[in-house]
Amino acid sequence: MRTRIHASATKAALALAIFLASPGNPWLTLPATGQPIAPAKRQSDALDAYNKALSDFKSILSERRHQIDSDQPLPKLPGQALYLARINLMSATKDLTDAVPSRIGRPNKFGIPPAYFDADNEPLADEYRRLFDILEAPPADAQNSATPFKDVVDLGIAIARAKGLDATSAETAGRISLGLFFAETSGTQNIGNARSNRYKGSLQTDPSEDRNGRRKWAAIRPSIAAIDPALGRRDDEEEARVGKSDHRYNHWTAVRDALMNAHADVFPQVPAIVKALPDPIDQMKLFELIQIIPTPTRSALESDDLLNYRISAPRIMGYLRNNGIFAFGQADRARPSANFREILDAMWLFNGKFKRAIAKFNEIKSR
Predict the structure, then answer these.
(1) DSSP string covering 85-131, please?
(2) Whole-prediction pTM
(3) Residues 87, 88, 90, 91: is their CA dihedral positive or negative?
């Protein structure tokens, strides 16, 4: 209630200031905020939208916390409303800072550009993460690995070597694989998915993707065991451990099958990808796009000009927005198309995860 009263009072104050302003001084400022009030209508609407988005985000955070703490039944896909509320708040923040650039504040601990996120809202984002940690906790019978990050790197390298890559390019494939782990789960093994009933595990696959990956692994496994006998023995142990259980909740088999399903066939192109995209974070972003929009990404890789390959299908643009790409602010949401250079640049929300992946990869390789 206080938020709505504050928004209405602010709107009224803006209108009064315009009424009192002299024709020769259209950029009258309010002493309380120091913010310019003209063009007042756009600024007032943006402020109202921001206050509503902030109120809605606080409300859904409070609702989920109360439901969890009091053991109340949760709605289907309990994380979806949380996710949409966060996206709406970031979008409203960008619209507000576009209308009133002086509202861009100090840097925040998440590394999100301040035009999209007010650092005063950090505690809300922390609560958002805590709730998702609860909602996406692995099941009791999930089979963790004591070396989850090294597993991802080892599997990526082994698959790449079996696909014919030399040691240097195979190591790049291992680093990219670790980036996918961080992109999909922030580096947490065996998680569920509070926004989907289909996708589960360390690399978030659905049952059909997991089965496809297992078939492909069976075909390539003899080559991998010949290249790396120790990895072959580890695979035998994990297969015996998982038995007839869901392979997506054994970290090793989840990563193995996911890489084989979506990425192994692209690993032979790693040298060309590195040449086109020398930035390791861009390389990781491209492979994450194979997760999000696989067919257009493969088409772009097969084209003569990867970075200028343009996507304009509304359905594909919708998939990008659903993953936090071109999702924030009216200008981005209205974008009808984008080339791959623009898409990679718009994936800034993944930057922090990929930087963590690179740091972890360097730590593993230094041992």
Answers:
(1) HHHHHHHHHHHHHHH-GGG-----TT---TTT--GGGHHHHHHHHHH
(2) 0.87
(3) positive
